[in-house]
Specification:
Number of strands of chain A: 10
Oligomer: heterodimer
Order of helices and strands of chain B: HHEHEHEEHHHHHHHH
CATH topology of the domain at 84-109 and 121-131 and 207-307 in chain A: Rossmann fold
Radius of gyration of chain B: 26 Å
Helix content of chain A: 40-55%
CATH class of the domain at 84-109 and 121-131 and 207-307 in chain A: Alpha Beta
Structural class of chain A: alpha/beta
Helix content of chain B: over 70%
Largest sheet of chain B: 4 strands, mixed
CATH class of the largest domain in chain B: Mainly Alpha
CATH superfamily of the largest domain in chain B: MetI-like
């Protein structure tokens, strides 16, 4: 893969692959007309922002390391389109590149090849425009800041006025129901509370996309289920586009409007399942027959991914 | 007894036991004072307790009283009335005075308290001056190396060289450069000694920010400047303080060792060498004791600063 043909050949090859994929997948990926060069369809900033597409990945490859021996392929030929207000989960076995994919979307990692477009601009521009809120598996709160000051961190960096800063902090702490803990230090909170602070911090500056990398992976099952409900509630209130990386099939199906299944070796998207569970979702959702059907579908897709080592 | 009290009481009891055993063994085995002075003899250089009977008691002969006072012991008992002329120097040196029944108890300065305190203050200033300069230099270099990684590779060999420099060989050179009586010559020695532990700890703190915390900053499109002040420097604070604790002890050692190679007569290191040369080991020991207490005090000040500046730190969690 390291020696590629001239750019023209490369583009044609990539599109050939895309056609194959679209024909194979069920339901088909909502990739825009592949005959129109991607670059043109997104070059006009304002028009693109009007569309419902928030994320558009085109032929994204990521290889870590340099030199032929040390190279590790993390993503190969990822094509993905995510619409506004969608709740998309990325699920797959360890090492399938789902966290890498999330970081490519958030411009924390630059892809080796291909393009990432976000809100009709490059992922880098979107990051510079502060379009992303990030939540990691570890809450990553700053130990030396109180809960309120942790939530304020992005607001400080973005030069909010003092009044606006305090108002947003209060709103966010109300949203995650931690107003009583504003003056606590992170170590005084439980893991679930810490993660709620991290979510409040991610939403404080009203980003258009929330990127979550296994945010509840370190929590116990009961806390995780409660956090899932709270996250759905927040998603409903804020109308934000969420991209959510998880290991848990139940979590992915319960939360998402769409589940993207990835495989390892090669690290690519193998299935794209629309989750048509009724809204609003709640405790009853987990008892819905359709919930089990969808869980089974995701589980089988994951099993499928292991059965075909290419 | 609470755990906290136990932590304080246990070391104090051990200290008392050691002092009592030391005093007893030196007396019982007739160990010469120039080999190992008694704790009471060491302390009597700093402080003395004179107990005088009230004026209505039978008078004490002047020569007897004078001999008892000259003996330079920690506890002097004057049984009987003493002539005012004999008692006058004692009263001049008194720190605290109180009555106990029929007796006057006078806690007075020891013979060497004034020179030792003067010398300690002089040496402490050298240590603090060097600590401030070495600390500032260490922090500045750490900031530069953490910002531009290439400079770390370039500067580290020099930092290691500074650290492995034999300070004993270096001290006479500094005395020569800056003048033997100039406190700056000792500050220069201290600067070199404390630079490395502060620099290396601060660098570690600045670069050991969790990768996720940096990704978070990147996702906010934070400037390098903001990352430095909002993530790296707060993260480096605990590391800086562990470097400072090491450096605090080194600073006292550096200043005194520097003075061994010459300095004004009011310096602690000079005082110790001179007293030892004159076989006045008890007063040399007294000076060492004060140097020790200053080192502990410096450590406690750093500990207090640490606690005040980092109320969030895990060390202080109940």
């Amino acid at each position: 893969m390291s020696t590629r043909g001239p750019p023209g050949v490369q583009v044609r090859l990539r599109f050939a692959v895309n056609f194959g994929k679209i024909a194979f997948q069920q339901p088909p990926l909502p990739i825009p007309d592949a005959n129109i060069p991607i670059r043109d369809s997104f070059s006009t900033g304002n028009d693109a922002a009007m569309t419902d597409q928030v994320v558009l990945l085109d032929g994204v490859d990521k290889t870590f390391g340099d030199g032929a021996v040390n190279q590790v392929q993390a993503l190969s030929d990822i094509n993905l389109s995510i619409g506004r207000n969608e709740f998309t989960s990325l699920i797959g076995p360890s090492g399938c590149g789902k966290s890498t994919l999330l970081r490519v979307i958030g411009d924390l990692i630059t892809p080796t090849a291909g393009q990432a477009q976000v809100n009709g601009k490059s992922a880098r521009q979107a990051r510079l425009d502060r379009d992303y809120g990030m939540v990691f598996q570890a809450a990553t709160l700053y130990d030396w800041r109180t809960v309120a000051r942790n939530v304020q961190l992005p607001l400080e960096l973005m030069k909010y006025s003092k009044q606006k800063k305090e108002q947003r902090t209060q709103e966010m702490l109300d949203l995650v129901e931690l107003s009583d803990f504003a003056r606590y230090y992170p170590w005084q909170l439980s893991g679930g509370m810490q993660q709620r602070v991290a979510i409040a911090r991610a939403l404080a500056f009203e980003p258009s996309i929330l990127l979550m990398d296994e945010p509840f992976g370190a929590l116990d099952e009961m806390t995780r289920e409660r956090m899932n409900l709270e996250l759905l509630d927040i998603w409903r209130k804020t109308n934000i586009t969420v991209i959510f990386v998880t290991h848990s099939i139940t979590e992915a199906v319960f939360l998402s409007t769409r589940v993207i299944v990835m495989s390892s070796r090669p690290e690519r998207i193998i299935n794209d399942i629309a989750i048509d569970l009724p809204k609003p979702r709640g405790m009853k959702t987990r008892e819905n027959v359709r919930f089990f059907e969808l869980e089974t579908e995701v589980r089988e897709a994951l099993r499928e991914s292991e059965r075909h080592p290419e | 007894m609470s755990e906290r009290n136990q932590r304080i009481v246990a070391p104090v009891l051990i200290l008392v036991a050691i002092i009592v055993a030391w005093e007893g063994l030196v007396t019982a085995l007739h160990i010469e004072q120039f080999l190992l002075p008694k704790p009471s003899a060491i302390l009597s250089n700093l402080v003395r307790v004179v107990i005088v009977d009230r004026a209505d008691h039978a008078p004490l002969a002047d020569n007897k009283a004078a001999a008892r006072l000259r003996a330079n012991r920690l506890l002097v008992r004057l049984p009987g009335r003493v002539a005012p002329a004999i008692l006058q120097p004692v009263e001049e040196a008194v720190i605290v005075e109180f009555d106990r029944g029929q007796q006057r108890v006078l806690v007075t300065k020891g013979v060497n308290l004034t020179p030792i305190v003067q010398a300690s203050w002089f040496t402490l200033r050298e240590a603090l001056g060097g600590l401030a300069m070495g600390g500032l230099a260490g922090i500045l270099v750490a900031l530069v190396t953490a910002r531009w990684t290439a400079t770390r590779e370039a500067l580290l060999p020099f930092a290691i060289a500074a650290n492995s420099m034999p300070i004993i060989a270096f001290a006479p050179i500094m005395n020569n450069w800056f003048g033997i009586d100039n406190p700056f010559s000792k500050m220069a020695i201290v600067t070199i000694m404390v630079f490395f532990p502060i620099m290396i700890n601060t660098v570690r703190g600045l670069i050991s920010v969790p990768p996720r915390a940096l990704e978070l900053m990147r996702s906010y499109a934070a400037s390098d400047f903001a990352i430095l002040f909002k993530a790296r420097i707060p993260n480096a604070l605990p590391y800086l303080f562990s470097g400072l604790k090491v450096a605090g002890a080194l600073a006292m050692i550096g200043a005194i060792v520097g003075e061994y190679f010459g300095g004004p007569r009011i310096a602690l290191g000079v005082f110790i060498t001179q007293e030892a040369a004159l076989f006045r080991f008890a007063s040399a020991w007294a000076a060492i004791l004060v140097a020790c207490l200053m080192g502990i005090a410096l450590y406690l000040v750093i500990l207090l600063a640490e606690r005040l500046s980092m109320p969030w730190h895990s060390l202080f969690r109940e």
